[in-house]
Structure formats: structure tokens, C-alpha cells
Write a structure and sequence with these properties.
Layout lengths: L4 H14 L15 E5 L2 E3 L14 E3 L4 E8 L3 E6 L7 E5 L9 H7 L3 H12 L7 E8 L8 H11 L1
Parallel strand pairs: 5-7
Antiparallel strand pairs: 1-4, 2-3, 4-7, 5-6
Length: about 160
């Protein structure tokens, strides 16, 4: 396993058990619990410049965001983040986000806005989202990471 991988998996599985997403006997090799991981980079000079055609000087790191997930039959998406414990469970019906949050709602929502935004964009572009899933998220990036690219990538991995 890569640096921090075993710790991340233990945190993810423990968080899922704490919130009742899966039971204590479930592991990564039983009952459909899966893990995906995003890479991390620092861009010297400009961040997110690749979105508008700016040249980047990206430097890879040994920091990541992991997501453990398991399909459910409720049609609801339930997410919980180890890094934002005060936020509790973010829950909504798959494919139900019909409009984006206002600026005031985004300010008050912390990281919740990112999975809702992905749900909105996928639904708006014709993806039929009916299946639900339960997911736990853990990152070892220092500070408060709210990078939309990484959160949205992790969410798209399981849709």
C-alpha cells in the first residue's frame, strides 16, 4: 500500500460503521465496499489555470483524498467526511438537484455544495441518476481542502 493508504482505509471503514453505512464485518473485499483515491498536486504560479488554457507547473505530492462507497437501494446519496466532522451526513435523492445553490447557500454549506453540483450537472446533461450509495471521505491534505476537482472526481468515480 502507498503512504497513508492503510490509515485511510481504516478511517473510511470506521466512519462507515459509525454512521451505519455498512456493518462491522464488512471490509474492502466483502459485501461491495469499494475505495477510490485521487491524486494531489500543487501548481506553482497559478491554480486551476488548466481550466482556461494557462500553462501549469504542477508538482505531484504524496497526499490524497480517498472515498469508500457502497451502493444502496434507497435511491439516496449519503456522504460523510472525516475532514468535516461538524457537517454530519450530507444526504439527498440521486438526480434530485434541479438548480444550483445561491451564493448565500454556498457560503453556509461548506463541502456539501460539491456533490450537489455534480448531481446537478449530471442530471442536467441527461444522466439518469436513480441508484443511491453511501460513501465516506478522508483526505490527508493539510488544512481545509475544498478543491472541487478532487471532491467531484471522487464522486464521479462511483456514479
Amino acid at each position: 500500500m502507498m503512504n497513508g493508504e492503510a490509515e485511510a482505509v481504516a478511517v473510511l471503514l470506521g466512519l462507515g460503521k459509525k454512521y451505519g453505512f455498512w456493518d462491522a464485518s464488512e471490509t474492502l473485499t466483502t459485501n461491495g465496499v469499494h475505495v477510490c483515491r485521487t491524486s494531489s498536486r500543487f501548481c506553482l504560479g497559478v491554480e486551476h489555470g488548466d481550466y482556461n488554457g494557462t500553462e501549469l507547473f504542477g508538482v505531484g505530492t504524496d497526499r490524497f483524498i480517498w472515498m469508500a462507497f457502497k451502493p444502496n437501494t434507497s435511491g439516496r446519496i449519503r456522504l460523510v467526511s472525516h475532514n468535516f466532522p461538524s457537517e454530519g451526513v450530507v444526504e439527498f435523492a440521486a438526480g434530485s438537484t434541479t438548480e444550483l445553490m445561491s451564493a448565500e447557500e454556498r457560503e453556509a454549506s461548506s463541502w456539501k455544495q460539491f456533490p450537489l453540483g455534480v448531481d446537478f450537472v449530471l442530471t442536467k446533461n441527461g444522466f439518469s441518476l436513480a441508484a443511491g450509495f453511501d460513501a465516506t471521505i478522508y483526505g490527508n491534505i493539510p488544512g481545509e481542502w475544498t478543491d472541487t476537482t478532487k471532491l467531484c472526481f471522487a464522486y464521479r468515480c462511483i456514479v
